[in-house]
Structures are given as C-alpha cells and as structure tokens.
C-alpha cells in the first residue's frame, strides 16, 4: 500500500493516545496547539510527505513551506492550509518559532446530523486545488478566535459540544472558500470552462492509486470524451484553449505525477505500478515514463 498516515500513526507520532469512546459514534475530531507538539530540542517538527487518512485544517504562523507533488508554496508569515486524504503533501517549518493550531477530522464527523456535509463536493476540497491561503493580520485574529474556541470546547463537558465543533469546522471551511479567487465563480457559466472542469474532476477521481489491485479505468482522450458525451476533437480544442495543453498531455502529466509518487512512496515493483496506471506491460510503461521525464522508472526510484 502507498504510504498513508492513519489516525493511529498520527497519535503515535505525537506520543498521545488515540481518543476513544464517543468518537466512534460521531467520527473523529481533535484540535491541537502546534508548538506543543514540537521537539523542544530541535525547535521544529517536520510532517512526513504522505497522504493522510483524515482531513486537516491548519493555521500556520511562522516561515515555512508546503510541498505537493510538483509545487512548493512558501509561507512567509501566516497561512490557512486545508489538507485532504486525496493529495499527499509535506509541511516543512523553516524557523524554530512556529506557532498556530490545527484540527483533524474524518469525513464521517461532518456527515453526522440532519445537515450532514459531503466533503468531496465542497470547493475547497475539489481536485486541482492547492488550498494554502496567506493571511493578513486581521484574518489571523479571526482564525485564531475560531481555533481557540475549538480548543476550549473540546475540553468542556458540554453535552452538545461536538455539534458546536462541527459548526466551527464548517466556519473554517467557508472562510477558506471565501479566500479562493472569485474568478473561479465568475467563469462557471462558460461552456468551455465547464467542460474543462468536468474533465479535470473525472481525471482526479481516479486518484490516488492506493492498491496494487486498483487500475485506472480512463486512459485515453477518447475515454474521457465518451464519458463526457462530447467529440474527442471538441474536448481537445476546449482543453487546449483553457489550459494550453492537449487532452493527451494533461492525462500523461497526471499519470506521471502519480507514477512518481508510487515509485518513491511504495515498495511496489515496476510491474505492479505499470498495471495500476493502466499499462499492459512494463516496457510500455517504461518507455512512456522515460519519454515524459528523460529517466527510466528504475533510475528515478534510485
């Protein structure tokens, strides 16, 4: 299996017991003060590059950076970071004076009650997003207030505290969604943008690859065009206009991105990786990988 940090492993990393009891019925939720988890000797604590098995919202204060498969985002002062189990990332503090807070929760935590929420339909957790938002001093005060309220409530004996905590998580999510560029909403009516968005959603739905028995169902431009009920030439034209790349290039880039993750983060052999990514034989995969990256899969794995 691909390297994934489970809730148990997370609590082992921070040397704290996994809470039990009511959490089994409501899904998991917890909130932490960042500096309380740091190694006091080194003054910093790096989260390993992996896919988490839970959602996470972090209020980060201090110079650091967030690393994704092919992107690095510098955080000079303060930021709000949203993490989903679908996308692996790494947070690296660059100074010893890191402060802030973060909460972790499972999808079933927000799915509780009459107003249950499906996290996968929320814009902040949509594929293709890099939800790291720089915060100005006024925004920091607002975010700090929400997190401190969470911290007080989790320790309280209030009977309905998890209902309140659920609302506070949603408040953070909506806060982040309001920080997203307005252009994403303004162009939604455009047919080309809509087709492009649906294509990207279909593409990302196939990832992450988490088992040697999983296999990509959609591999070619025609596969996606058929699923979207458009002609392959029209899909290619739309994507070229919107992204600057052809359908085949976009698919290839995403497969390469996943291939790099599997090569570095799993002990699967090349044949297994080749199969999961939709290739019928190792030679085809190796030629494809080398054409896209200029190195063979074995050499990339090191």
Automatic annotation (TrEMBL):
InterPro entries: Homeodomain-like_sf, HTH_AraC. Residues 193-302 form the HTH araC/xylS-type domain. Keywords: DNA-binding, Transcription, Transcription regulation. It holds the Pfam family HTH_18. Signal peptide: none annotated. It comes from the Bacteria. This is Helix-turn-helix domain-containing protein. It comes from Mucilaginibacter ximonensis.
């Amino acid at each position: 299996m691909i390297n994934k940090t489970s809730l148990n492993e997370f609590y082992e990393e921070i040397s704290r017991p996994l809470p039990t009891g009511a959490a089994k019925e409501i899904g998991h939720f917890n909130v932490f003060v960042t500096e309380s988890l740091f190694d006091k000797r080194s003054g910093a604590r790096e989260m390993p590059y992996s896919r988490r098995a839970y959602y996470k919202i972090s209020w980060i204060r201090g110079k650091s950076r967030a690393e994704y498969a092919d992107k690095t985002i510098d955080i000079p002062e303060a930021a709000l970071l949203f993490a989903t189990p679908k996308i692996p990332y790494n947070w690296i503090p660059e100074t010893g004076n890191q402060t802030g807070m973060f909460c972790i929760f499972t999808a079933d935590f927000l799915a509780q009650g009459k107003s249950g929420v499906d996290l996968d339909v929320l814009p902040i957790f949509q594929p293709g997003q890099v939800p790291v938002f720089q915060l100005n001093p006024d925004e920091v005060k607002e975010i700090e207030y929400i997190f401190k309220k969470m911290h007080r409530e989790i320790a309280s004996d209030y009977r309905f505290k998890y209902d309140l905590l659920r609302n506070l998580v949603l408040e953070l999510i909506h806060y982040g969604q309001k920080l997203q560029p307005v252009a994403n909403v303004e162009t939604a009516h455009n047919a080309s943008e809509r087709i492009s968005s649906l294509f990207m959603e279909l593409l990302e739905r196939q990832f992450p690859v988490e088992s040697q028995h999983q296999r990509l169902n959609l591999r070619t431009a025609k596969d996606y065009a058929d699923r979207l009920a458009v002609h392959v030439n029209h899909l290619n034209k739309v994507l070229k206009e919107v992204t600057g790349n052809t359908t085949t290039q976009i698919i290839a880039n995403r497969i390469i991105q996943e291939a790099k993750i599997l090569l570095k983060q799993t002990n699967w052999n090349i044949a297994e990786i080749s199969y999961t990514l939709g290739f019928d034989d190792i030679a085809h995969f190796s030629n494809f990988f080398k054409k896209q990256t200029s190195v063979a899969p074995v050499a990339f794995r090191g």
